[in-house]
Amino acid sequence: MSNTPGVTPEIPQLDPMRVQVRKHAMLNAIEEEPRRRWWRIAVPASVLAAAVVATTVLWTPTNPSAYASWTAEPRAPGPGADSVVEKCRKLIAESPTADMPDWPETPTDLTIVDQRGDLTMVLFTGPESEQSCLGSPKGIEMAGGGGSPNGRPPLGSARFRMGSLGTSDPDPGQGEPRRTLVAEVGAEVAKARVSTDDGKQVTATVDNGWMVAWWPTKAKAISVTLYNSAGEVIGTESAEIK
Amino acid sequence: MTDEELWGQVRAGDGEAFGQLFERHAQAVFAYCLRRTGAWSVAEDLLSVVFLETWRKRASVVVEGSLLPWLYTVALGVTRNHQRARTRYEAALGRVPPHDADDDHADDVARRVDAETRTRAVIAELEKLSAGDREVLEMSAWSDLSQAQIAQVLGIPVGTVKSRLARAQHTVRGAFVEEAL
């Protein structure tokens, strides 16, 4: 303690030019506001939607890896999944965006339960948005999601449409990174597998016209391979959000 | 013009008036964010976030006297969870031209590094306090706010400000205490 500085460390003046740069960037941003409702900032990169509503952090210093039981292949949901579903439903309903006038309507339809080890990912969908939520014995938190107040156009004859690619990237010491991919799939898609740029092959859970896959790293999704019920490859899709 | 007068224009949608408030208070908000985070570039981003969030909530904010108590309120919130705040305003922050390191003089780089080193040393010491005690001590030491204003910013009674400040000062003795008084 004797070698520490005072509680009010001296802070140099900001460069006046940087202040002006920041000011003008800010003014440009707020001038666009009437033309672009603020949800639009969030929805295309649905990472943001997830970040806005994120609540409880699973990781704690005494739990070095909340994702230790994660597996690339999902398994059948266990008896604890129902509890996670209800907690997620409540979490989503009470999220700060739930009552926002320009935010897509909160999804309420339970669409997928994805189980990997003791980690349960739940996907709710609705006419205007989708939202996933991750639960484990340690706690519960929002994952990826997205949507639009204008609703979602029908998938039609398409086999695949990216929904969102959520990223959780906490500060060092505050948790563990995670990516969550949510997409719509056609009726002929029985299985989907995500390839990531760190070499993972993550099998998604597919149900009710949707797929969910997540992995406990910041690795980017490169592609999604789609299979039919006979196990044949019926397509390979980009994981980019268009 | 006073903050109150400018704020009246801001509430009517005047971006230029908001720009004037930005110029007036940017340094104070930046200093607070840097002392809280210990990272220069993060503090610069959070400075923008604080003002963008203030603009977004302009219709519901009433300013009496200075805008600073409100700015500190927002700054406290965004520094509590700065990753989430930065993510929310990612689109706007993306428009800020990156600071070109090649343009920096060595002295500028050195003073940034020095400032980060100093603030991180203080942060390390303050982490010995509870979050509540720490926020009171920080607000008391780093702003010109009265104890009543600090109570308003933190959403706690004035008596709690006093008791937390006394406890924090007791824990963090030495050079810290004199400066916080």
From TrEMBL, chain A:
Q: Where is this region: Disordered?
A: 143-178
Domain of life of the organism encoding this protein: Bacteria
**Name of the protein in question:** Uncharacterized protein
Native organism is Lentzea alba
From TrEMBL, chain B:
- Output one GO MF annotation: sigma factor activity
Which positions fall inside the RNA polymerase sigma-70 region domain? 21-88
Residue ranges constituting the RNA polymerase sigma factor 70 region 4 type domain according to the UniProt record = 121-168
Entry keyword Kinase = no
The domain of life for this entry's organism is: Bacteria
Arranged from A to Z, the UniProt key words for this protein are: Sigma factor, Transcription, Transcription regulation
The answer to keyword Transcription applying to this record is yes
Pfam families per record:
Sigma70_r2, Sigma70_r4_2
Q: Which GO terms describe its biological process?
A: DNA-templated transcription initiation
Name the InterPro entries for this protein: RNA_pol_sigma-70-like (IPR039425), RNA_pol_sigma-70_dom (IPR014284), RNA_pol_sigma70_r2 (IPR007627), RNA_pol_sigma70_r4_t2 (IPR013249), RNA_pol_sigma_r2 (IPR013325), RNA_pol_sigma_r3/r4-like (IPR013324), WH-like_DNA-bd_sf (IPR036388)
Family as reported in the entry's similarity comment: Belongs to the sigma-70 factor family. ECF subfamily.
Name by which UniProt lists this protein: Sigma-70 family RNA polymerase sigma factor
